[in-house]
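Researcher: I'm preparing a figure for a lab meeting and need a structural model of a single chain. I don't have an experimental structure, so a prediction will have to do for now. The sequence is pasted below. Please return the structure as tokens so I can convert it later.
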Amino acid sequence: MRTFSFFYKSLFRNIFICLIGLLMLAGCERHRAPHKIVVFKAPEVLPEDTIKYPNALITTLNRRNAWVDSVFRTLTPAQRIAQLMIVEAFPNKGQEHVDDVLYLIRRYKIGGIIFFQGGPVRQTTLTNKFQAASKVPLLISMDAESGVGMRMDSAMQYPLPMLLGAINNDSIIYRLGAEIASEFKRLGMHLNFAPVVDINNNPNNPVISYRSFGENKKDVTSKSLAFMLGMQENGIIATAKHFPGHGDTNVDSHLDLPVITYGRERLDTLELYPFRALIRSGVGGIMVAHMHLPMLDSTANLPSTLSRPVVTDLLRQELDFAGLIITDALVMKGVTKYFKPGESEVMALVAGNDIMERMVSVPIAIKAIQEAIREGLLSQQEIDRRCKKVLAAKYWVGLNRYKPVPLETLYADLHTSRGHETNRRLAEGAITLLHNKRNIIPLEKPKKKNQKIAVLAIGAARPTFFQRKMAEHAPIEALLLPRRSQKKDRDLLLKKLKKHNQLVLAIYGPSIRPSNSLGLSKDERDFVNKLIREKKVIVTLFDNAYTLNQFDDAAKANGLIVGYQQLPAVQEAAAKLIFGKIKPNGKLPVTVNDHFRYGDGL
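Model: Understood. Here is the structure written out token by token.
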């Protein structure tokens, strides 16, 4: 018995020691540096992680906070209303405009700024000036769907969503979101009105088009999720737009009020799909579109932005969104055509929006909201709740520790090698090969010394980056066909092309941004179609995929490449593809016509 007693005592002692060891080991593990986080795995949220993980943002917006309470107590009721307002600022405008913005900051204590055209140094100088003048740190925002280069000069130009929609590797899109977050933080900004999660299933959409990731709801969801996480996991608030879905409209809400005739069944199966996914993943903001949905709210000419059934009943309550609900710009014709300044802001708050963006008049809006409170249409308690939510957003982005933005090395910090490498990966991941008849690609170099490949840039007024990159791979003759060309110019080109056996056409739109129209005349389009029919040709389109429709014979091209934009990285990727230095990876994110459908790509 004594032997057994000794055995059990030893066994229990050893088990106890092991348990103590395991507990100590677990304690040590808590103090080790965290492992690298898998991109789409939702990590455990700890209090100190409120600037890193997206779900912690929603938590921060909806719980009590000592800094928020202390700032809130310093604000008058009118100033709490003003905290819900974001006004525009243009760094490329003069001192009178700057003084107007400063007046709104000092007099009314507005909550934030949205920046538009300008340059990095000018904008950052204004940011520091505006922040210094503000009683409460300002929430600085930008409508930067493809990064800050979309709005300012002297900054990196990243691709727009249609190009991203062609990519099969969403981790590269996450990386882009992280790069944009880094640039936002360097410029002292906190809130991006992106990503666009509209499903563009209407090729004639005048306002979304290339701003959408595509026509497939699952692709749009996965890519917008990667983009959102890239930003929010790096400390910038993302805003999914345009709720409840702007992809199937034929009216530009900047100019008028689109009417959406379908109801909940269609919304549930398509448009709301990405919004639901991003809400579950902790997106910080959602922007509501200016669209009239009579099946959801029959009030005549009422934009969804001002509709309580859309904003509160559907988005806030049914979809359980606890983040920031933000109006699209209240200066757009989709609102101002039917509602007066002041009236629209009151209706936006009654509907349930937290933040009002770009008002016609801040003083008129505040006065109208105060009157609505006195009349019982709104309660000060509800204004206070939303004010604290906005202040909590400021806390999450670090404005409780605000410091002026340094100007030194600003340009270099916005043009990093990491950013250029991101652009290269995006371009090479998106380049889409639709036709490769008789394996024309990779293109063989001319065998005779005096032979050259003709590279004709359609719509270009000067030699292009693509032609320069093509010349690095083989001898070429660079030719141009600018817009508004004369018949004699086209005849001369035909004469020159007779001596070339190999022809590459590069088609450009009128801007670095994609276009809905290439701006080519009928004669110029006919000229391109003639070359496609009569010669062995590779066509590369550096523009919106939908513009393939402008060439009746595009499907007859021996080789057909879609680059989606004319960014330098895309033009270089196209040259590499033509000479077999990279493989095609992209797939069409939209259906263009019966010849070129969603998912096509060799």
